[in-house]
Every structure is written in structure tokens, then in C-alpha cells.
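User: Protein folding is very new to me. Would you mind checking the protein record under this note? It all follows right here:
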Amino acid sequence: TAVPNGDVTYYVNDSEVKVENENDRVQLLVDEVSNGEEFNAAMGADAIERVTNAAGNTLSNAAYDLAYMDLVDTQNGNAVVTMGEDQSLFIYWPVPENAAADSEFHVVHYTGMDRENTVDADKLSAQAADVKTGEDAVEKVTIGDQQYVKFTTDSFSPFALVYEKAPDPVASLDVTKTLTAVNGKTPGSSVSVGDTLTYVIKVTNNGNVDLTNVTVTDTMSNGRTVTWVNLPDGVTNENGTLTITSLAAGTSVELTATYPVLRADASSNLVNTAKVTGTNPVEPDTPVTDEVQTP
């Protein structure tokens, strides 16, 4: 989308013939830069390099979007339209879906290129280009429910939008189990028959995507299970299996369980296994799991 930056006079392709913009006949035409994937990749790489070299920008996971923009007269066969001297338009470029939430945006305008003169991919670095970077030149704005990258231009040709790509989605769970009390007191070096052990099981979503329906089980090698107590909101218990309805990325839930030591436990090599399993939004057919064993 293009919006006039102040008063703008339009002309037919650098001539002195004015175009009266009645009924918004002058429109921004957005097209692909090239049909060739190799050329587009080369331009994207060149744009990233130009941005990186400008003002010491650091890009850790750089991505790009390309567009050939023309200003045209839609009532005159899409004839190319230019503007008066020192006049410009605001360009509103939709923020790419894969852009990181905190990404800065940069625009490389290849001012030395046009449709009439082709350029080989290996000659891109020699082309004149205007690198727009920094908040004063490029800003992210929100209009309605859509985010845009906003910048100004006084001419049209290929443009590259350079930004930080959001990390690839990773689903991951971690579970730890800690003995926190024996008979309500700080644990010692040993336990006895009849003691009640209190454990805290901590379930952490250490991925970068939210997880749902995370199940938690805690079983003994003798077939017995722990008793869950004081469950937090959002956690349900069905026959000893807990379900955490949702677990946001980077958050944890602590669960408390008790177990009474039986006489049979004293003479056995008892092993306790806490296991967590969550629905994987990245690969729904492959659940994300983790488990921990304690003696």
C-alpha cells in the first residue's frame, strides 16, 4: 500500500504530462522481482550483506522478502507514473508471518535497476542501492489487526525487506523430581518404614511453542503410585494421571506428591519414574516426552 507523504503531483513516466488522481487511479503495483529462484536468492543475500554493513547491524537469523514496486495509472494501461521533485510516498509493507516479534526491519531499494535493463546475479553488488535502516527510516506500525513496515520512497524499482526470522518452532519438555520432606520435615540421609515422603515434580516447557494436554504420571517399580496433593489450577487428576491443560513456552508447573514407605520397600530395590508427555504442535504424530527416575 502507498500513501502520499504530503502533496504529490503525478506524471506519466518522467514526462510533463500530469495524471489527475481521480478515483485513486494511481495505484501501487507489486510484483515479483524475478521468476528465477537463483536470482532472487542472490538478491536476498546481497540485501542482507548491505544491511549488515550499514551502521554495524547484526543479524543472527536474517531473512528477506522481495518485491518489485511500480506506481501505475490504472486507467491508462498501467502506464508507469512518477512524482514531482522532492515528493514521496509512504509504503506500507505487511510484516512477514515468519518475522520475529522483536525484529528490526531494514529496506534495500535497488535504485539503479529497472525492468528495461536486466542484471546478472553476480553483478548485484555493483548496483546502486539505498539502504534504509534505523527507526527514523523504517518503523513497524499497526493498522487494525495488521502490522506493517512503513518507509518512504520517491522512486520505484526492486525492494528487499530484511528482518530477523523467528526461531524455528521447537517442542520440548523437562521433568525433575525432588524429595522435599520426610514426615513434613527436612529430609535426612535415610528414611524408615512408615515415613511419608513428599516430592515436588517440576514440569517445564523449555521449547518455544505452547503445549497442551501435558500428562504426568509417577509410578513405583512395585506397581504403586504416589498420591497427588494440592494440585494447582489448570491441572486435573484422573486415576493418578495428571493433565496440565496448557503449558506456555518457558513456563513451569510444580506438582506435589506423597508416598508412604512400606515394609516391603525396605528390602526391595525400589525405583520411582516420573514421566511427562505433551501434544506436539510441531509434529502432532510425535508426542514430546521426558522422564526422570529416582531410587
